[in-house]
Design a protein that fits this description.
Residues 55-228 form the FAD-binding PCMH-type domain. This is FAD-linked oxidoreductase YvdP. InterPro entries: BBE, FAD-bd_PCMH, FAD-bd_PCMH-like_sf, FAD-bd_PCMH_sub2, FAD-linked_Oxidoreductase, Oxid_FAD_bind_N. Keywords: FAD, Flavoprotein, Oxidoreductase, Signal. One of its GO terms (molecular function) is FAD binding. By secondary structure, this protein is α+β, with helices and mostly antiparallel strands. It is built from 15 helices and 18 strands. It has helices at residues 2-14, 22-31, 42-48, 68-81, 133-144, 158-164, 171-174, 202-211, 244-260, 286-300, 312-319, 349-361, 419-430, 451-459, 463-473, and strands spanning 36-37, 61-63, 85-88, 106-109, 116-119, 124-128, 146-147, 181-187, 193-196, 217-224, 226-227, 232-239, 265-271, 276-282, 303-310, 336-344, 369-376, 401-409. A seven-stranded antiparallel β-sheet has the order 15-12-14-13-17-18-16. Strands 5-6-10-8-9 form a five-stranded antiparallel β-sheet. Helix 2 packs antiparallel against helix 4 and helix 12 runs antiparallel to helix 13. Residues 4-11 have low confidence and may be disordered. It binds flavin-adenine dinucleotide (FAD) and 2-acetamido-2-deoxy-beta-D-glucopyranose (NAG) (6 copies). Residues 348-351, 432, 434 line the site of one 2-acetamido-2-deoxy-beta-D-glucopyranose (NAG).
């Protein structure tokens, strides 16, 4: 009997909920000298607040490391106690994955680790794992008039962004954020710290560039940079496609153009219930932009609303949505939304009419503030498609289009009946596309997907290798979240 009782008690301990381990975790963090947010303090509230207020999760503890040794200490405590742990950088995950994507995780709030140091002689920047993009961009500019390509929102963290892709208004010209990475310092699940690059731990380095959140915590990135151009031109052109036929005709012209457009041009089609824009950034002056887009303007009947020459900081501010560039802690900006994404090649007649039919018949009935952003991701002159598609774990280099579907409410809660809008938009488009000819982007996640579907959609043909690497570096899934890589 005694033996059975002991066995039951042991079982109880093993299956204890993370919150039952809170006191032990707190003791462990404190003896390891890891700074933490005390529950209920204003820092706790800020650090636990999701960007997407629809997905609010309660951490079991929040560590606030300021050194790599603190990160190691925190991971050692999590591993010892069997608590799941996740890094949080900018906190901008649409699925709140920086908060674990569910209750009861140890959060490593990295945003106090945001140093950026540019070596002006090599052009290589050392960027701490908790910096936000606007801060990184302003530092690189101030320290040497340099930069690299990445997304537009200054509050987005370089961590989540560059570890999973990082697409922005420079990417057709200059590639993904992860294409500028040359090395990273990573704390692994067993709390050892290693450097990875093409020559050190190359498998880990491969996984870091596309699925980094599942294999470790990056405390420092090394990025190469380029000297930023003196003159760029950002632009907005409106198209008015009043009927389904005109929209199909316009989209056909758009995709033919996207396949061939010059490397210097970056463009997206931004569809909302109120307007449709072609917009982006041209590496060159206004006359160059006009010449580059003339063929598309003629076929889509687009009319320019803005063609603005400016320097590097001007375009960053323009695309940064009015926020000051240099974002750090505290950052307190939120929305309430549901999202999903898609990658496809050019659509054939059936697929185009499925897309436009859903858009005109159903999407236009949705009175919430939704949009579809169609990035001209690939194409024959895109820097994204230049590297070998298997050279990093980012699985979808070759696709022509990257779509972000976004559906939000200004205030209040997102209705449970609201998910169908995006889900049906996506499934109407994919209905006549073969299974292996589309994918999704983990940085524009669909938080409603189950883990197996999510892994397949995000990592496609790279999933098997990623799961093998995951098994080698994190066999007990310390860095678990609901859409991460599972050990094979
Ligand atoms: C307003 C807005 C604009 C956006 N614009 C773009 C855009 O233009 N282009 C684009 O490609 N994406 C864009 N995104 C998406 C963005 O790239 C992703 O949400 C990204 O993952 C956010 O990174 P984060 O560090 O801010 O998020 P977090 O929620 O902090 O982290 C996201 C994931 O990365 C992990 N992670 C973060 N830091 C580290 C680290 N140092 N080490 C290990 N794992 C880490 C987290 O554990 C989590 O799984 C945008 C998002 C928002 C909200
Ligand atoms: C870095 O180099 C750029 C030119 O490449 C120069 O303009 C700038 O002053 C240099 N900055 C420092 C801090 O040396
Ligand atoms: C990783 O590389 C950086 C930069 O070269 C170096 O400063 C650091 O000591 C290295 N860390 C480890 C753990 O090797
Ligand atoms: C552009 O305008 C021309 C001339 O009016 C018209 O024939 C064509 O269908 C229009 N195209 C689109 C995509 O609106
Ligand atoms: C488009 O492609 C799908 C899938 O391959 C196919 O079923 C469909 O018939 C194609 N439509 C046209 C018009 O070619
Ligand atoms: C297309 O959208 C409609 C309207 O929401 C929906 O009823 C239908 O099931 C969708 N089709 C597919 C294949 O998802
Ligand atoms: C930690 O894990 C890495 C990756 O699996 C391994 O190479 C290393 O030997 C481990 N270190 C210790 C101390 O176990």
């Amino acid at each position: 009997m005694l033996q059975l009782g002991a066995f039951v008690a042991l079982l109880g301990l093993a299956s204890a909920s993370p919150f039952e381990k809170a006191a032990a975790l707190s003791d462990c963090l404190s003896s390891a000298g890891v700074p933490t947010d005390a529950t209920g303090t204003s820092d706790w509230k800020l650090d636990a607040a999701p960007y997407n207020l629809r997905l609010n999760y309660t951490p079991v503890a929040i560590a606030v490391p300021t050194t790599a040794a603190h990160v190691q200490g925190a991971i050692a405590c999590a591993a010892k106690l069997g608590v799941k742990a996740n890094a949080k950088c900018g906190g901008h995950s649409y699925g709140s994955f920086g908060l674990g994507g569910e209750d009861g995780h140890l959060i490593l709030e990295l945003d106090r680790m945001n140093n950026v140091v540019l070596d002006n002689s090599t052009g290589i920047a050392r960027v701490e794992g908790g910096a936000r993009l606007g801060h990184v961009a302003s530092e690189l500019y101030n320290q040497g008039k340099r930069g690299f390509s990445h997304g537009t929102c200054p509050g987005v963290g370089v961590g989540g962004h560059a570890l999973h892709g990082g697409y922005g208004v420079s990417s057709h010209t200059k590639g993904l954020a992860l294409d500028w990475m040359v090395g990273a310092t990573v704390v692994l699940a067993n709390s050892t710290i290693v450097n990875c690059s093409e020559t050190e731990h190359p498998d880990l380095y491969w996984a870091v560039r596309g699925a980094g959140s599942s294999v470790g915590v990056v405390t420092e990135f090394r990025f190469k940079t380029f000297v930023v151009p003196e003159v760029l031109t950002f632009y907005v052109a409106v198209v008015r496609w009043a009927t389904e036929d005109k929209a199909i005709e316009g989209l056909k012209a758009v995709q033919e153009f996207a396949e061939e457009m010059p490397a210097e041009l970056n463009m997206r089609l931004f569809i909302t219930p109120r307007f449709i824009n072609l917009e982006g950034l041209y590496y060159g002056d206004k006359a160059g932009l006009q010449a580059a887009v003339a063929p598309l303007v003629a076929k889509t009947n687009a009319t320019f609303q803005l063609q603005q020459e400016g320097g590097w900081l001007d375009q960053l501010k323009h695309f940064g949505g009015g926020l000051p560039l240099d974002q750090g802690h505290p950052y307190d900006f939120h929305e309430t939304f549901y999202s999903s994404s898609l990658y496809t090649n050019a659509l054939n007649q059936t697929q185009l009419s499925d897309f436009v039919n859903y858009w005109f018949k159903y999407a236009k009935q949705n009175k919430r503030d939704w949009y579809v952003q169609l990035d001209f991701h690939g194409g024959k002159n895109s820097a994204v498609t230049k590297p070998d598609p298997d050279s990093t774990s980012y699985a979808h280099r070759d696709y022509l289009f990257m779509y972000l579907f976004y559906d939000r409410v200004d205030k209040g809660i997102f209705p449970a009946s609201g998910f169908g809008h995006i889900q049906n938009f996506v499934s109407n488009i994919t209905e006549s596309i073969p299974e292996n000819d589309w994918g999704r982007y983990i940085n524009y996640p669909d938080p409603n997907l189950d883990q197996n579907t999510a892994q397949t959609n995000y990592w496609g043909s790279h999933l098997d290798k990623l799961q093998a690497i995951k098994k080698a570096v994190d066999p007990t899934d310390v860095f678990h979240y609901p859409q991460g890589i599972l050990p094979e």
